[in-house]
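User: Design a sequence. Structure:
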């Protein structure tokens, strides 16, 4: 009798352990599998590990005009975004076409130029070994907050990226930390494994308006917040993947 009770008790314990383990696995999915599910949800399996793209967008930057002034609370820029792996370029032109600002990260240096009425008025080239590590993280931050979801997907494709699962949020979103070089960013993926939000540095980026672009699921609306305050919004009007760029397109020489 005691032997039968002992066997039954052990069976109950074994069953309970399996149930608890299954719940634990559901709440704490393997990071590699979760990242693969996210990649699959965005359908980037058939594309290179580092995506390249040419993107057009309208950037609406929030400003704070005096109440009753009748002035808009934002200003508009037409934006062309180019991305080739970790090399990124951002060209901003005001609607009148008089002012153009260009920023380039080539993976090591930041290059910046501004022209007015076709004449260059400012040029900046940040380089040097002393700031190499800071620039490396700035490259990640710059790409994520300015270039849509492609920069995030590129980092997820990097085999050197360190993935850490941080749990399930109250909105049932999986929270994942992605280590990149000297820094990291945090992404939030919904039940369908689509990325809805990313935190990088002081920025929070939200994504919406998903569409299929050459088979890849990408958001066409991106909102960037600092300390809960909306800073700017990007509305993408065209995204073309697997673009080829001139050899010096992401260099200082292309801005002169």
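Assistant: Done.
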């Amino acid at each position: 009798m005691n032997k039968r009770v002992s066997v039954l008790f052990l069976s109950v314990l074994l069953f309970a352990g399996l149930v608890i383990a299954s719940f634990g696995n559901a709440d704490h999915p393997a990071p590699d599998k979760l990242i693969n599910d996210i990649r699959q949800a965005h359908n980037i399996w058939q594309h290179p590990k580092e995506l390249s793209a040419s993107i057009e967008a309208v950037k609406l930057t929030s400003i704070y005009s005096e109440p009753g002034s009748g002035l808009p609370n934002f200003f508009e820029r037409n934006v062309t975004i180019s991305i080739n792996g970790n090399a990124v370029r951002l060209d901003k032109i005001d609607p009148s076409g008089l002012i153009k600002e260009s920023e380039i990260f080539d993976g090591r240096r930041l290059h910046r130029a501004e022209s007015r009425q076709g004449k260059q008025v400012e040029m900046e080239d940040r380089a040097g070994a002393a700031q190499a590590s800071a620039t490396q993280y700035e490259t990640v931050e710059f790409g994520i907050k300015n270039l849509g979801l492609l920069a995030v997907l590129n980092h997820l494709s990097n085999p050197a990226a360190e993935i850490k699962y941080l749990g399930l949020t109250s909105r049932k979103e999986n929270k994942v930390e992605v280590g990149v070089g000297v820094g990291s960013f945090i992404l939030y993926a919904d039940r369908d494994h689509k990325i809805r939000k990313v935190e990088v540095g002081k920025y929070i980026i939200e994504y919406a308006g998903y569409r299929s672009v050459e088979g890849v699921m990408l958001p066409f609306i991106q909102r960037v917040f600092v300390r809960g305050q909306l800073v700017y919004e990007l509305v993408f009007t065209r995204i073309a993947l697997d673009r080829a760029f001139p050899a010096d397109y992401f260099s200082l020489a292309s801005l002169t």
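The first strand starts at residue 52 and ends at 62. The radius of gyration is 23 Å.
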